């Protein structure tokens, strides 16, 4: 390392909010040019540790100990001076990109804003640098686009561009690749690595993806219930995991399930030559408005009880396909039916069909009303039924317990949960009406490895109890291989390959499929002491 003094040193830091202990006696340090990974379950305190470094703790938070960043004591620095540090000396990539972006500002303005705040430069130069940075993170779209016009993975890349445009000394990345497909994830991780080496920057990455941790980090810190339970260099930790919790995490990441054999069934979903176009911005004031084809002659079927996977890069049309299957958007061409009935009739979705299917969206926070308690949130699908359940409280409690939460969580609000817990609530909401079809749109992307294993087990158990059909949309190829019978590979609005899951994974025929499989990170075998 070029510098002898650590870029970041946290000494005996503890954090309480009200009477609740959040962090206890945290000790870690990060050198210039080093990549430090913090991993652990949702709710273990990873994100709160990052927010403490940024000085972004909620009201009522009491922090003791010391946080030294490049010679500055963060805990005693005024808010005015912290604002000068944020975005310049230190920067952060937040876990949920939609809540980190301004919905009424285009993405070019939002990236350029960081430059204009910290530098005396012209808007023209700032916007040129912003456009260059957006391209560098692999986002080849116009900087005049707005966040709602982008996919989840594309929005995450905008947030990363905002964070690194000033080349900060410390970059904190809270689940930076959660919403990214495997090829984009590989490119982003290479980019972050290059920035660390080129600018002697320190990178603190928070992630539950242990394959990413093993490949990227120089040092790994494992957290559980607000404490650091193990800390070591990556090769040393992988070769000799001392704490049982660390071994449990790595075991969960290799979790395999015994998916019930699919024996065939009657056709449930029929989609034929689906076309969905969106208007694009005019290139001239009075010129014609071009169209962007998000779905280009998509055709496929799903049978009763069949588990189908859908993989592809961010922006390939997976989420658009989700919306048209649910009848949330009409199509310009083609036919979609469920049990022989159209999902869209006239200008309205067919509610008879909607009763038979549910969805788990990619971004759990934006799919909930923050003003309502969890009990009301997960019981919303009952509004589609002709009659309400006889014992709603018991049904709600059971739904929460089935996804690893407590019945008492029904009385809490959504902002009181971690990202992974919110996703579990979304899954509980989808299951509560026992639909014929569930569309999982990146349903496990925000979950840590142990909870992900529980959710996968839950999905498999449901498949054993009843012929549940689902479309599992994910960029995590390992999970897709684990929980599906058949897989569809999508690129640029088209299905380029399809077939039985094992056939596609073992003998991919399309070059794009081979590229996806090659980019997927793998977890090395560990040796226990």
What does the model show?
- The protein is an alpha/beta fold and 529 residues long.
- It has a domain of 246 residues: Rossmann fold, CATH 3.40.50.300.
- It is built from 19 helices and 22 strands.
- The strands form five sheets. The chain has a six-stranded mixed beta sheet with strand order 6-7-8-3-9-10, sandwiched between helices.
- A hairpin with a 2-residue loop joins strand 16 and strand 17.
- The longest helix is centred in the middle third of the chain and has 18 residues.
- The protein is globular and about 70 Å long.
Summarize this, please?
With 529 residues, the protein is α/β, with parallel strands linked by helices.
What is CATH's topology name of the domain at 8-253?
Rossmann fold
Radius of gyration: 23 Å
Beta strands, count: 22
List the total number of helices: 19
Largest β-sheet summary: 6 strands, mixed
- Terminal CA distance reads 30 Å
Strand order of the largest sheet: 6-7-8-3-9-10
Estimate the helix proportion, in percent. 25-40%
Morphology: globular
Highest-level CATH class of the domain at 8-253: Alpha Beta
Secondary structure class reads alpha/beta
Strand content: 25-35%
Q: Which residues sit in consecutive blocks of at least 5 with pLDDT less than 50?
A: none
| Corresponding CATH superfamily of the domain at 8-253 | P-loop containing nucleotide triphosphate hydrolases
Q: Any guess at the CATH architecture of the domain at 8-253?
A: 3-Layer(aba) Sandwich
Mean pLDDT: 88
